[in-house]
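ok here's Ead/Ea22-like family protein, seq below lol
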Amino acid sequence: MSNIDKQALRERYSPKPVPECHICGEEMTIQRISASRITYGCTGATYDDKGCHYAEGRSIADDHYEQSRVTVVDVSDPD
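and the structure came out like this:
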């Protein structure tokens, strides 16, 4: 198998990177998965041993979250 073939396989089966929020630049989290569609959103939440904490000025399902949502179609091979 040639190096070109190996690279093509890596690209086909590798997971895609998680998108960054176009508003604040933070890494978004998966909100919903349906078939090959993955919906990401910027929640502004951090999780630790004490639970969930929101960034200052943020709350669950706020305007920032609604405006940041993006749906990505996964074109990688599911096999």
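fwiw Residues 3-13 form the longest helix (11 residues). kinda neat tbh
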